[in-house]
Amino acid sequence: MPLSAPPESVEIQLGDRSYPILIGSGLLGDPGSYAALPSAATALIVTNTTVAPLYAETLRAALANRFRAVHLLELPDGEAYKDWQTLNLIFDALLSHGCDRKTVLFALGGGVVGDMTGFAAASYMRGVPFVQVPTTLLAQVDSSVGGKTAINHPLGKNMIGAFYQPRLVLCDLSTLTTLPPRELSAGLAEIIKYGPIHDMAFMDWIEANIDAMVARDPSALAHAVKRSCEIKAEVVGQDERETGLRAILNFGHTFGHAIESGLGYGEWLHGEAVGCGMVMAAHLSQRLGGVDEAFVQRLTALIQKAGLPVVGPALGAERYLELMRIDKKSEAGEIRFVVIDKPGSAIMRGAPDAMVREVLAQCCEKN
Ligand SMILES: NC(=O)c1ccc[n+]([C@@H]2O[C@H](COP(=O)([O-])OP(=O)(O)OC[C@H]3O[C@@H](n4cnc5c(N)ncnc54)[C@H](O)[C@@H]3O)[C@@H](O)[C@H]2O)c1
Ligand SMILES: [Zn+2]
After folding, report:
1. pTM of the model
2. Alpha carbon of 70 to ligand 2 centroid (Å)
């Protein structure tokens, strides 16, 4: 997409908390991107030590005429810092700069920065406006949209948080040029997920364009981000607080979370674990009668082409089952899986342990 192209816009419909997702190249540095924000004296950009040298100055310059003061806070980089201590650095900055309840927070970075800044915005002075400026593919197609915010606890991931919607999401596709290849593939996993659960025409499109996306073709990425945000917007608009439908966005995540925590967080990226988890969930869906073998092979090939692992680590079936039983989605010890009940449609359901063991035997490395 050329620099001059007007941004695409997707609206999240939540009554008086509705907001736009703007998608385009070069949006970050364009003061016009921020025109509709509420007026305020101060802004705080929260970012990290990796993203700050790349994009913080561009954002600060674009905000300079709108706010009397634009403060910058650089957090340490990594999932390990998505914790209370680091969250508190945001409150320290807000209070030491005398930020009031109109102060606008800008989350500039991937999902870690977005989740933490959103939670800080939800609780500082009982809620201040915030803007998501996602700079990873995963954050642009998933974590920045929908208002889930959280930090981790030593005993569990994303266990402390709030539903709190941003005022604006700004997906600047030009930030993806600096993303490491593994992070790009991790984002592709969350894009692929939207096909089998909701939109087979999108799955066809992803198959036809997977090589272009891996090569970072701007127009292919632009379409993928837009369609992913549209699907997430539709699902979140119907079920903001995940009382039902929203859970289908966790396709591949029950198996994926077990891989992440079984190997130790950080070994596989979240998107890598979800990619492999979708292969497992597809096999389970086949055993439950929702899809045929050709569908499973098709999805597996697509995940592989995205540069993602398709064979699970050999944690042992009992360890997988144990880890999946403590997943947030399980109820009274029964594991709930998102499975495809027909191509383009997903449901939540349980499955016999014996069947899950068979899937794991089929999909994991042998000891
Ligand atoms: N809130 C939600 O709905 C939701 C959904 C999915 C995931 N998440 C959360 O999101 C987090 C994962 O997000 P992520 O995958 O974006 O990881 P991340 O935020 O850790 O970013 C990945 C890495 O890329 C770097 N980076 C970011 N933008 C860059 C750029 N443009 N160029 C170069 N490097 C860049 C980061 O500094 C980091 O090292 C997890 O904590 C997960 O729990 C939240
Ligand atoms: Zn995910």
Report:
1. 0.96
2. 32
